[in-house]
Amino acid sequence: MFDGACAxxxxxxxxxxxxxxxxxxxxxxxxxxxxxxxxxxxxKTGHGSIAMKRLGSNEPEGRVGKLKQVDHSVEKSPVPVxxxxxxPNDLTNSIKFSPVAPQExxxxxxLRSTSEPWRGRSETPDQSLQALTALQPYVHVxxxxxxxxxxxxxxxxxxxxxxxxxxxxVIKPExxxxxxxxxxxxxxxxxxxxxxxxxxxxxxxxxxxxxxxFYRKAGFTTVATVVSxxxxxxxxxxxxxx
Length: 242
Ligand SMILES: CC(C)(COP(=O)(O)OP(=O)(O)OC[C@H]1O[C@@H](n2cnc3c(N)ncnc32)[C@H](O)[C@@H]1OP(=O)(O)O)[C@@H](O)C(=O)NCCC(=O)NCCS
Fold this sequence. Notes:
Layout: H1 6-12, E1 23-24, H2 34-40, E2 43-47, E3 50-54, E4 67-68, E5 95-99, H3 105-113, H4 125-133, E6 139-144, E7 147-155, E8 164-171, H5 180-194, E9 199-204, H6 209-217, E10 221-227, E11 234-241
Parallel strand pairs: 8-9
Antiparallel strand pairs: 1-4, 2-3, 5-6, 6-7, 7-8, 9-11, 10-11
Helix pairs in contact: 3-4
Coenzyme A binds near residues 170, 178, 179, 181 and 210.
């Protein structure tokens, strides 16, 4: 065994219960997040309370849920390709929205790590997945041709008392400026209404001009400037009525 395997190990009752899989490294994952973390990493719940059967995964070697003695005969699913040449002018009826499915979390993480501002911070897909796993209950995706092309998070509570909180909204870079962000935001506002909230709040980096412009056009106004606990940087606190 190697360092960090203890949390999972103690919940699994032993490392040898599924043949080829002998240990999972899970040191960055809280035990309480383990199940969704593993599902998001391409594992299937199937043995006691812990996921242990690997499904096809596009993840590169060495990322989350790293294995020892994995069964390499498991087939990898092909990377899906989104056909951008067949896009209708009006995307309104082509975009579908839903709460994220566990198997889509890897796609959402890839989307985040390839989008600004996370791309500029060199956040890896691995780090994105870890951050998003904690937010999974609040993640909703937008899909085009059955591909995840955007996501948003909506929490019932946030920095403004009584207001729902939108922590992230992201559209696949090559599909930005086509109105999809506006459609996804409309969906997020409906999710917030369904949570019986009358206001939606968010924080944004004032240097993220695209996002600030997007939020302003969508009717958000700045209600305060706050300092991010994480980065120590200034953030605009914006909100709008629902
Ligand atoms: C912010 C974001 C979600 C907007 O999504 P989008 O699909 O491009 O937005 P829309 O096409 O619906 O744009 C609606 C309006 O927002 C404004 N807007 C959007 N992108 C803009 C940009 N790059 N520069 C200036 N204004 C912009 C425009 O007013 C636009 O209307 P217009 O195209 O008619 O001028 C997208 O840029 C994104 O994913 N950015 C990276 C992640 C991010 O920074 N998210 C916000 C913080 S978590």
